[in-house]
């Protein structure tokens, strides 16, 4: 690999190991979510975002920003979840172009069920394997990399989940 790039082979080995670990963690969590709650990772991401949001609702655009998804992906995923009774769309009275995605009782049950198993599985396959120092290191490294990729993403996520963006839009 290093013959065609300026990345040393040792760095490529680190990258391949990281990617393989991430894929295996993703597969284990997907299996757990399906087994425990009958939801997919995309379902869970939306349900969890809505569960944490002010009034358990977010605009479709905000969901996309929060999850880093394209508008069409959010729309298709929400449509599937509406059909299963997990969420609903509601018109936005202040902006006729947008709509709210609202967590329904069945979605609340699913996210609570999924969260319990998800926490157990995360602890088993990730947190329990790491020392406290390694957890701090991974956290710090993750923040540095996220800052390099998208400096405003974390601040925007906090704004969305706190409901601050809707309050700003209303004023």
Short description:
This protein is mainly alpha-helical and 171 residues long. The protein has eight helices and three strands; from the N terminus they run ααβααββαααα.
Q: Using the coordinates shown, work out and report the CATH topology.
A: Arc Repressor Mutant, subunit A
Mass-distribution shape: globular
Summarize the biggest pleated sheet.
Answer: 3 strands, antiparallel
How far apart the termini lie comes to 54 Å
What is the beta-strand fraction? 5-15%
What's the CATH H-level superfamily name? Winged helix-like DNA-binding domain superfamily/Winged helix DNA-binding domain
Radius of gyration (Å):
19 Å
Architecture overview:
The protein is mainly alpha-helical. The chain has a single domain (2-170), classed as Arc Repressor Mutant, subunit A, CATH 1.10.10.10. Helices cover 69% and strands 8% of the residues. It has 8 helices and 3 strands; from the N terminus they run ααβααββαααα. The chain has helices at residues 9-37, 41-52, 60-67, 71-83, 105-125, 132-149, 153-162, 164-170; strands at 57-59, 87-91, 99-103. The protein has a 3-stranded antiparallel beta sheet. β2 (87-91) and β3 (99-103) form a beta hairpin. α3 (60-67) packs across α4 (71-83). It is globular and about 55 Å long. The termini are far apart. The model is unreliable at 167-171 (pLDDT under 50).
